[in-house]
């Protein structure tokens, strides 16, 4: 009888302990914040170019490698930079400059349509590129245009790049990729209002 009581008491004690363990509050897990990208802009433009040029192998138009001209990337909704701020213009132009460099690095012939007919000598520097149509030779050998658009998001820029066969206007290759916002403005806090990015300095001043 005593042995039966001891067994019963032991079972009750174990049951009470198990109940206490089950009622213990689970440990709180803190959500992990999204990490900033450590990569520079060139990492993302090279990735974009690599994906784009890989599609040319399947294009039926090319018996020889294309000769490429590169234009500025434009906002997807506006298709112009007239209303863009300085930072967006710089970003659009840097995208095209990077894609021009990658095109040549991947072995393609690249046509620079901004080349002046003459090298202009200025005070302290020489200028060979121009945006003035009168200074530029309108004839060129390029038969393919590398261009694209971009869309501003809260924490990234969505970039759409394409290669277009100029005579037929056929899209030979197209790719969409993203560039984290901190890659573009890494030293500032990025906020978005509407379709525009705003930088905020550590002092809280919006720019």
Walkthrough of the structure:
The protein is α/β, with parallel strands linked by helices. It is built from four helices and ten strands; from the N terminus they run H-H-E-E-H-E-E-E-E-E-E-H-E-E. Strands 1, 2, 3, 6, 7 and 8 form a six-stranded mixed beta sheet that branches. It has a two-stranded antiparallel ribbon with strand order 4-5.
Reconstruct the topology from this structure.
Elements: H1 2-22, H2 41-54, E1 67-70, E2 74-75, H3 86-105, E3 109-110, E4 115-122, E5 125-129, E6 144-152, E7 156-165, E8 170-180, H4 181-184, E9 189-193, E10 196-200
Parallel strand pairs: 1-3, 1-6, 2-6
Antiparallel strand pairs: 4-5, 6-7, 7-8, 9-10
Number of helices: 4
What's the overall average pLDDT, rounded? Answer: 74
Please count the beta strands (DSSP E, at least 2 residues each). 10
Shape: globular
**Uncertain ranges:** 4-9, 20-34, 186-190, 199-207
Helix/strand/pairing category: alpha/beta
Taken as a percent bin, the fraction of beta residues is 25-35%
Straight-line distance between termini: 85 Å
Radius of gyration: 29 Å
Described by its quaternary structure, the protein is single chain
Largest sheet: 6 strands, mixed
Order of helical and strand elements? HHEEHEEEEEEHEE
Helix content: 25-40%
